Amino acid sequence: MLHVNAKFVMQYISPIALLKEVSPGEVDNKNLTIAKKKLLAELDLSGGASIIINNRELFKNDIINFFDSLQQHENINYHIIVANDAVLLRFLEHNVIENGNRFTNTELYRNEQFINWVSGYYCTSFCIVAANCLTYIYDDEWLALMANPLLMNATDLEEAWGEVETEVRQSLERLREFFNSKSVEGKKGIDLLVGFRYISMLQRLPAQRFTILRDEYAYMVMQCSIEIFNKVNKDEGLIIVENGLILAASENIRRQIGEKMSEMQSINSRRKKRSSWSGRGLGILIFIIIRIIWYSASSSGNSDYNFQNTIPVYNYKNDTGLQRLLDTARVEIDSAQEKHHFDSLVRSLKKMKPGPSNP
Fold it and tell me: When you count CB atoms within 10 A of the terminal residue's CB, does the N or C end of the chain come out lower?
């Protein structure tokens, strides 16, 4: 969870919400004075030291200072502009933004004076929303957050990015712990942190500001993918290393991860080829077994049978066609490094005693 520096905590309260019977266009000093007196009276009647508005605790001095600042014509105009933008208002007051939400497209949001005025409020809401997104991997909300104008001045923007970096580095440390443990027991704890959704969220961070962090994270994702490739599942390891490649910001790290991914793909391809050849060899053996049974059932008193036994035994050595099939099967299974399975099956064939044939 992000911990916002106390000096930057400025949760927004819209004065329009306090003037419930007044439309935004009718807000003036007279109405503000009336609202101020009502709030102070409410505070006195409650007998407490503070009142809660929009989940924010306001003391008497807060109320006085809040309304005094509204007496400035420029400030009240800014509040009216925010009140007319439902998405921005909800974001600033309740720290909520949803998939597809967009602020009103207005030139004022590029105005330096307006940005300096709203910056502290925006920084607070941005850090809270970013915390929820990164903690619970709300990738849709993160997309909306990053797609809208960042209404912060340079100082507040860097403060916000610093909070985000702190959060991401905590995730990076969890990856390091998994890798250094050389154990797969902690794999479930990092699955989401190396998954595509989280990686795509980090990819949306500005490359120039986050080049070093993105490269560090991408490289550690690669390291974790190798562990998973070797000890858990090769296909899953390949998916994870590709996520690392997507995140990498610098050409050098992309090259290193790309080379490792190619090496892993080659190993996995050879493994799947061996598996395929093994299946082919075993298929041939099944055909051989069927052929032996067919010969045993259909042959009658020829030299291929040993009549000294009461139960006929098929002599496969005299069947040159069958010998060729056995040789082929041996080659197939040797290439798959499963010769021990082949020899075991051949020994079983030699001992095979099918039922009596019909004369």
Answer: C
Q: Which amino acid is at 46?
A: S
Alpha-carbon distance 251 to 234, whole Å?
26
Burial tier of 156 (Cβ tally within 10 Å: 0-12, 13-18, 19+): buried
Model pLDDT for residues 286-295, shown as the tens digit of each residue:
666 665 655 5
Fill in the DSSP letter of residue 28. -
What's the whole-model pTM score?
A: 0.71
Domain boundaries, the chain: 1-111, 273-350
Name the nearest CA neighbour of 92 among 74, 72, 78: 78
* Closest to 320 measured CA to CA, from 291, 283, 278: 291
Rounded CA gap, 240 and 50, in Å? 52
Summary mean pLDDT of the chain: 81
Q: How far is CA 72 from the centre of its chain?
A: 47
Residue 356, CA distances (Å) to 194, 294, 352 in order: 63, 12, 12
Distance CA(81)–CA(100), nearest Å, equals 21
The tokens for 47 are: 């007998």
Quote the CA–CA distance of 291 and 325 in Å, as a whole number.
Answer: 11
